[in-house]
Structure formats: structure tokens, C-alpha cells
Amino acid sequence: MTVRRRAALVIATALGAGYAPIAPGTFGSAVGIVLWIVLPNTLWLQLIAIVVVCVVGTWSGSIAEEHFARHDPNQVVVDEVAGMRVTLLLSPIGGYGWMAVAFLLFRAADIVKPFPANRLERLPGGMGIMADDVMAGVYANLALRFAMWAVGHLRS
Fold first, then answer.
1. What secondary structure does DSSP assign to 99-147, as a single string?
2. Buried-state track 50-75, b at ≥16 Cβ within 10 A, e below 16
3. What is the pLDDT of residues 67-115, one digit of tens each?
4. Torsion, CA 11, CA 39, CA 94, CA 100, rounded to 10
5. DSSP assignment letter at 84
6. Ranges of each domain in the chain
7. Structure confidence at residue 155 (pLDDT)
């Protein structure tokens, strides 16, 4: 295996989280939360992290599809990392409770794949792998904001 392919698989599987025997997408989402916790919570850094994960994820996802010989293989979870990052973008998470809500909202949106997320996954290669989860992250971000507003955590 070439160094390029090995690097792509490490990225696509979110440092191996995608090899979890049960619910690899859930483990990939957890990596997204860890990345959010580790990086300083500034707008520009959040946006840069999302763009970098999406660009590198698209590249590595395409290589992983070729490696695993199937479209959107279960082992590829870098898309969940990106989707979780989008879910948390500009969210005033004030503790683990809201982080858990964000996590559950993203997992639900990722599994249900409401329109147009279900169409975006049909895009070719790594683009399709990434696009549906980024859209699920947008839905989860909006749902999280609504939930925070509904309980008075966000002021209008």
C-alpha cells in the first residue's frame, strides 16, 4: 500500500474510528466533538477546520471508495467529523448536556437524511460522501439552535 493511500485511509477513517465494529458513524461523530473541544472556539478557526476537513475528506473519501471497492463505505467517517463540526458551528454550548443534544441531533439527521441530504449522497466519490453529512450538520445546527431558544438558552 502506498503512503498516499495509507494517509487517505487514516484520514477517511478518522484515525481508525471508522473501523469500530458497531456504529462507526457514531464514533466518527465523537471524533468531531473531540476536535471541537480541542480547537479554540473562534469563528475563523471553526470555519477553517470545517473547510479543511471537507476538502481533505473529499480527497480521502474518493481514495477510500476505490480501496474498499464500494460507494460510501462504512469505514469512511470523516464525513461525520465534518457534519458534527457544522452542527456545533457558532453554537453556544454551555456544558456537556447541550453537547449531547447536538450529538444526538446530528446522528438523527445523518441517519434520516432529510431532503436534500438524501440526494447529495448520490454525488460521485468523496463529494457525495461529504455533502450529505454536511447538510445533515446544517439541519442539526438549526435544530440545536431552536432547542436552545425553546428552553431559553438563546436570547432572541
1. HHHHHHHHHHHHHH-TTTHHHHTTSSHHHHHHHHHHHHHHHHHHHHHHH
2. beebbebbbbbbbbbbebeeeebbeb
3. 999 989 999 999 999 999 999 998 888 778 999 999 999 999 999 998 9
4. 10
5. H
6. 3-150
7. 64
CA distance linking residue 117 with residue 75, whole number of Å: 20
Look over the chain and give the mean of its residue pLDDT values, rounded to a whole number.
Answer: 93
Measured from the Cβ of residue 132, the count of other Cβ atoms closer than 10 Å reads 24
Q: Which three cell numbers stand for residue 137?
A: 450538520
Express each pLDDT in 25-74 by its tens digit: 999 999 999 999 898 888 999 999 999 999 999 999 999 999 999 989 99
